[in-house]
Amino acid sequence: MEKRRESLARKSFPCARAGFGRILRQFSDAPPVYHNPLYEQAAPYLRRPPAVSGIFYPESGKAVARQLAAWNVQDGSESFPRGGQVIIAPHAAWEISGAASAAAFAAVQAHPAADSPAGRVFLIGPCHSPGESGIYLSESDAFQTPLGDLPVDRRINGELRAAAFPFVEENDLFHLAEHSLEVLLPMVKYCFPAAHIVPILVQGGADALKPALSKVFNIIFKYMDESLLVISSNAAASKDPAHALSMADGFSSLLHNRNSGAFRAGLDEGRISACGGSIIAALLDSGLLGNKRFSALLPLSGHTGDDGQTVCYGAFTAL
């Protein structure tokens, strides 16, 4: 395990290299924890520091709060969401897709808790860094945000590991420079500041991890009455903007119709290119949604990057 960790640590983290380098410089003299110099503090309390604050979203807590308020998200310091809700939110920089992610969280806030408050938030997203296929939990006790720490529910980690061993493990090397969950964490903290989180990263294809993801969703299902489930996923990507939007429309339609077979076939055949699609396919297969159907909250939007790739974004709720 130690050699494997060291090998993974040497690989690049292209999705957030600037933030990763900043953490390395900041903590280069810190004592290693699990051979990992990136923690702010040694055991027994480990905090995962931000990798992309000031890059993908504001570094200042006040700036985060101002931006979320401008997107009509409410300060949730005295409220909890209703348990059992599921949202899909995108994971680009806030200036590109933040309004869509904020719309998803605002929709959850519109359904406050009655008898089933959600004190826990499961977050599942894709891993953009190279590495072995698997499902990776965090070794940290908390994730830092500009608004304060979000504690990790390590007890649930234990259940997930036991249910889907050896495909599920605690390994922060995948979490340290990954942005797909981090960009959503300030929204979680702002909306539900007392919540615990269970951050889960998925590395690999739909087929290889399908059985393990099924077991993960079975565990999550046990706790859905007291939890919010957040899937981090974009809607489509293509070099052709019109094709990207067409694929995003197909993605949205299959979500709404809960057609898991067609969704998985679309992934296999390349008609669905959502970054996070394999996670959504497993969710649709799992039965966790019950009678819920996804609804789009905003019109789909696209953004073309410097590489010529157009990525489409949307926000969806299953309430």
Overall helicity: 25-40%
Write down how many β-strands occur, each being a DSSP E stretch of 2 or more residues: 14
Shape: globular
As laid out across the biggest beta sheet, the strand order is: 7-4-8-3-9-2-14-11
Largest sheet: 8 strands, mixed
Measured distance between first and last alpha carbons: 41 Å
State the secondary-structure class. alpha/beta
Proportion of beta-strand residues: 15-25%
Radius of gyration: 18 Å
Which residues form runs of ≥5 with pLDDT under 50? 1-42
The secondary-structure element order is: HHEHEHEEEEHEHEHEEHHHEEEE
Number of separate helices: 10
Average pLDDT, rounded to a whole number, is 86
Write a brief caption for the model.
The chain has helices at about 1-10, 15-25, 60-70, 95-110, 155-165, 185-190, 205-220, 240-255, 260-270, 275-285; strands at about 45-50, 85-90, 120-125, 135, 140-145, 150, 170, 195-205, 225-230, 235-240, 295, 300-305, 310-315, 315-319. It has about 325 residues and is an alpha/beta fold.
